[in-house]
């Protein structure tokens, strides 16, 4: 076989290999048909490279023996183990459903609508394992299967071990190796302490978090970075990524992910009792999903409309530039007349200069004809609509009447003096205010998603990671 996919026409003993379901580092999962009974089963078959190593053959046999000790409807059932000089495999029930990781990547709503039953089934399966004195030690979405009928199976006991006794915990030191999956491993295991039922509960909390939000709580840029976050970083509540999650559900998930094992639930029964007394979602997941999709569709329509308008403008500009189309100019619309203020009554004293309009004073509007001098009691500009102008209202070049103060030689009148507040073409623009220096804000550090560019997730079987103090 040589690590390649086994040909579908191969028959091992009485089992014909029909369909390769999954391929791992050391083994493949096949759908097989028993030619004697015509029943379908699943086969875990060692690849040729792994078969050459005695350690992998022993691990496969050990996994079969552990799984065969459990008899629970939510734990995958195994039937037989076979090892020859050419191959090694064991047979288990064929379960027609994907694992949770596949469903999370495909349609998270499927999990949300069945989440309560899903969690209950996994917790009951864990409780059965713990009651028999075993630990699973690799709880994650990849090892939980869900069928269309909402049947649940817990699989993969390759890392399972006996739960250490209280005496063993007191006498033993640190573990020699770290086993598990980096994204879901408990902090105490990273510190090489002995595992416990609470270690499985921590991994369960991470798994439920991912089922609720579509992502794990911790993401890292390197393997050690991810492990350190499990030890030091406080996990966010699921509602930070899914606002439909209730505070009660947040509390349960955060309790499962507590840094210290003694702060987590002590047994599966405690988790079940809490779960059955709380509400997982604020509103029905289907209704919430439909509302979110409607908002996304509305926002997408707005963006699409803007994009269409932008493309149309670009095409129009190209036609105008190439002479294929004449640019249509929009008619000028007269600007609204600014609010007027009655003029200041001129002083009778000879040589008195008219007052300069204060800063921010509205600009005097330009008349269609020559500008006119204000007359007492009449506002600047044109007469008010519907009223007759006062007798003698000047319409030509203004003439200063007798007694009105004459402007000093070389000095412009109030109407002609430039002001910084007026938008005159002859006015000198005011200097811009110096902007306050702002310290540059560093860009946020965005962690890379697990499994995209750097593979941080799976720990190889019996692989030892660097010690973290």
Blueprint (SSEs and pairs):
Blueprint: E1 11-12, E2 15-23, E3 27-34, E4 40-46, H1 48-51, H2 54-68, E5 78-83, E6 88-93, H3 100-106, H4 108-112, H5 115-131, E7 134-135, E8 144-146, E9 152-154, E10 161-162, H6 166-171, H7 187-190, H8 197-213, H9 223-232, H10 247-256, H11 268-276, H12 285-321
Antiparallel strand pairs: 1-2, 2-3, 3-4, 4-6, 5-6, 7-10, 8-9
Question: Care to describe what's here?
Answer:
This protein has 469 residues and is α+β, with helices and mostly antiparallel strands. Among the domains are: 1-94, Phosphorylase Kinase, domain 1 (2-Layer Sandwich); 97-291 and 449-469, Orthogonal Bundle (Transferase(Phosphotransferase), domain 1), CATH 1.10.510.10. The protein is 30% helix and 10% strand. It has 12 helices and 10 strands. The chain has helices spanning 48-51, 54-68, 100-106, 108-112, 115-131, 166-171, 187-190, 197-213, 223-232, 247-256, 268-276, 285-321; strands at 11-12, 15-23, 27-34, 40-46, 78-83, 88-93, 134-135, 144-146, 152-154, 161-162. The strands form 3 sheets. It has a 6-stranded antiparallel sheet with strand order 1-2-3-4-6-5. Strands 7-10 form a two-stranded antiparallel sheet. The chain has a two-stranded antiparallel sheet with strand order 8-9. The two termini are 43 Å apart.
């Amino acid at each position: 076989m040589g690590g390649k996919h086994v040909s579908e026409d191969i028959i091992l003993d009485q089992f014909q290999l029909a369909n390769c379901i999954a391929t791992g580092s050391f083994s493949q999962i096949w759908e097989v048909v028993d030619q004697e009974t015509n029943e379908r089963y699943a086969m875990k078959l060692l690849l040729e490279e792994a078969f050459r190593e005695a350690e992998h053959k022993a691990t496969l046999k050990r996994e079969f023996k552990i799984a065969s000790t459990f008899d629970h409807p939510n734990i995958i059932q195994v039937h037989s183990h076979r090892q020859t000089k050419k191959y090694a495999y064991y047979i288990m029930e064929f379960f027609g459903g994907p694992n949770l990781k596949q469903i999370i990547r495909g349609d998270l709503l499927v999990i949300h609508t069945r989440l309560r039953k899903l969690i209950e089934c996994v917790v009951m399966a864990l409780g059965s394992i713990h009651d028999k004195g075993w630990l699973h030690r690799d709880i994650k979405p990849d090892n939980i299967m869900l069928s269309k009928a909402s049947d649940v199976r817990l699989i993969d006991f390759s890392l399972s071990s006996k739960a250490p006794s209280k005496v063993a915990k007191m006498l033993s030191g640190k573990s020699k190796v770290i086993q598990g999956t980096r994204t879901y491993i408990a902090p105490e295991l990273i510190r090489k302490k002995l595992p416990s039922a609470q270690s499985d509960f921590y991994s369960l909390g991470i798994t439920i978090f991912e089922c609720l939000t579509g992502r794990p709580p911790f993401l890292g840029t390197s393997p050690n970075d991810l492990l350190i976050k499990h030890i030091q970083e406080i996990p966010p509540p699921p509602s930070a990524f899914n606002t439909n999650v209730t505070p009660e559900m947040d509390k349960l998930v955060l309790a499962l992910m507590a840094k210290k094992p003694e702060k987590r639930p002590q047994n599966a029964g405690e988790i079940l009792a809490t779960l059955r007394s709380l509400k997982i979602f604020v509103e029905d997941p289907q209704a919430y999903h439909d509302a979110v999709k409607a908002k996304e569709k509305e926002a997408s329509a707005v963006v699409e409309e803007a994009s269409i308008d932008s493309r149309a403008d670009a095409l129009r500009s190209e036609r105008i530039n190439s002479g294929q189309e004449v640019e249509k100019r929009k008619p000028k619309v007269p600007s609204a007349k600014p609010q007027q203020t009655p003029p200041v009554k001129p002083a009778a004293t000879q040589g008195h200069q008219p007052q300069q309009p204060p800063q921010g004073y509205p600009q005097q509007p330009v008349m269609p004809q020559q500008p006119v001098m204000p007359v007492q009691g009449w506002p600047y500009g044109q007469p008010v609509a519907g009223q007759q102008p006062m007798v003698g209202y000047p319409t030509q070049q203004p003439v200063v009447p007798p007694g009105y103060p004459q402007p000093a030689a070389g000095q412009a009148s109030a109407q002609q003096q430039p002001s910084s507040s007026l938008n005159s073409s002859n006015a000198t623009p005011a200097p811009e205010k110096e902007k306050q220096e702002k310290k540059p804000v560093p860009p946020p550090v965005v962690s890379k998603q697990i499994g995209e560019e750097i593979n941080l997730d799976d720990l190889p079987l019996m692989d030892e990671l660097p010690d973290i103090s």
